[in-house]
Amino acid sequence: MQAVPSEFLAIDRKERANRPFFDLDLRPPEVRTCDFEDVVIEFDPERAMVEASRCIHCPDPAPCMTACPTSNDIPSAMWLIEQGRFAEAAGIYHKTSSLPEVCGRVCPHEALCQGSCVLNKHQQPVLCGELEAFAVDYERRTQGYIIPVGTPIGKKVAIIGAGPAGLGCADILIQKGYDVTIFESKPAPGGLLVYGIPNFKLPKDVWQEKWEEFENAGVKFVPNTYIGKDKTIDGLFEEGFEAVFIGVGSEIDAKMEDTPGTDLPGVYEATDFLIRGNVEAEQLPENMRKPLEIGKRIVVIGGGDTASDCLRTALRLGAEDVTCLYRRTEKEMPGGKKDRQMAREEGAKYRFLTQPVKFIPGADGKLAAVECIEMKLGEPDAKGRRKPVPVENSNFSVAADTAVLALGYWPDPIISKTTPDLETHDWGLVTVKNKTTGQTSREGVFSGGDCVTGPDLVVTAMVAGRKAGDAIDEYLRNVIPT
Ligand SMILES: Cc1cc2nc3c(=O)[nH]c(=O)nc-3n(C[C@H](O)[C@H](O)[C@H](O)COP(=O)(O)OP(=O)(O)OC[C@H]3O[C@@H](n4cnc5c(N)ncnc54)[C@H](O)[C@@H]3O)c2cc1C
């Protein structure tokens, strides 16, 4: 429910709907590709107030609120921002979201809140994503934010994985008074917020300041601990944890197993390429600290958001000729339009209906070219997407000294292999008996995020973690009372 019911607002909806729209300010492509800094130029307070005043305050429930996976009370936040009450607006977001400064930057707003804004019918939508980031950044700069920690209740919960799902769960549980420990295989917390999403979409200092809030609230962090190898879930229960949340994501790069040459120097998997291209050496696991060796002609294979991020990272690393090879047409691409548009503005090219069939070495043994075959679209598959079909004798070669495989991700089977009776399905995704609670087949073990759904979004993983946090609280209070 909206905190400020629309019927109490003395507003003229028609007049508001006709207020002028000023688009987001972005740094020019030729400037922003010279560094890894944020692409978006932040709102200043006056501009934020003007933009928020375009909200026409639809009757409750507003479509933007319904479309937001975390049900942020966007209309009330817009009302407060319009009046310059920025920190109060930030408070609205903290009620329903554990990562508002992150979601304000990386959510596909055009498909969620902004996509459902009624102004789309004849105008541009209110830029509510950027306003969310603005309000929370403003609060942090001017007064800071302290997670309201609950009175300790003397129960310990283990969270596996410090990505958005684990963080959402930790946020809820620490507020309810639990002793929360996050076990993470990597040296630093954040999951794909650090080891995936590039800086130019989510600056690392924004994440670092966010993480400090969790630390200040007393969330314990155990890095470099790979559950399944260094410890097991059964072992965590033996250590005295009374419930476990699995939020390990879905981070194993899909391979091109039948394609010769993927082991050539110059062929990278997307995660390796993005992490080594974007993350400081000290935050990298030791086996990833060797600098990338990239050339001037890079091809990226794939059609999702990861492919867009790789293209844009390649341009920032100094590549001169950057091309995306995708086996279907642009219409079937799963990645968001906004990221693709930015990649194009920055100089990336696209070659559709193109399937690599062989990676070819040069005289020095390193990648020199990619042999491809033309594709055409055939019959729709089970999901209704038309299947790509090879065109016979259409092989051609694309010169490239670096290739990045951005083909999607699979879950890591280690947790299911080392946890008796933990049910999984479809290549190792964790089975949850109840989608809302995240309860798994093992008593006291809950799960959420990409390891349950497969690769999805920051916001959906965070929401799943928060819901599981509530369910763990209920379980520990009712099923295992003190
Ligand atoms: C390149 C890229 C760009 C993306 N861009 C966007 C975007 O712009 N907007 C958006 O909304 N989403 C984006 N996503 C998707 C989004 O990042 C994920 O959906 C989200 O991070 C999933 O959160 P999670 O907590 O489930 O998993 P993750 O973020 O993957 O976190 C899981 C954590 O668990 C740890 N872990 C794994 N196994 C173990 C183990 N056995 N023991 C201990 N720790 C373990 C991992 O190291 C990791 O830190 C992007 C994804 C990628 C790959």
Please sum up the structure shown.
33% of the residues lie in helices and 16% in strands. It has helices at 13-17, 29-32, 45-52, 63-67, 74-82, 86-96, 100-106, 113-116, 128-142, 164-175, 204-216, 233-238, 270-278, 305-316, 337-346, 414-418, 450-453, 458-479, and strands at 156-160, 179-183, 220-222, 243-246, 252-253, 267-269, 297-301, 321-325, 349-351, 354-361, 367-380, 386-390, 396-399, 402-405, 409-410, 424-425, 429-430, 445-447. The protein has 482 residues and is of the alpha/beta class.
Principal-axes shape call: globular
CATH topology of the largest domain: FAD/NAD(P)-binding domain
Tell me the name of the CATH homologous superfamily of the largest domain. FAD/NAD(P)-binding domain
- Supply the CATH architecture of the largest domain: 3-Layer(bba) Sandwich
Main CATH class of the largest domain: Alpha Beta
> Taking Cα atoms only, what radius of gyration do you get, to the nearest Å?
23 Å
User: What's the helix count?
Assistant: 18
Task: Indicate how many domains the architecture comprises.
Answer: 3
Strand order of the largest sheet: 3-2-1-4-18
Poorly predicted sequence stretches spanning 5 or more consecutive residues: none
Question: Which ligands does the model contain, each kind named once?
Answer: flavin-adenine dinucleotide
The proportion of residues in beta strands is 15-25%
> What is the straight-line distance between the termini?
34 Å
Residues in helices, as a percent range: 25-40%
Q: Helices and strands: which structural class?
A: alpha/beta
Main sheet attributes: strand count, strand direction, barrel closure: 5 strands, parallel
Mean pLDDT: 95
Report the strand count: 18
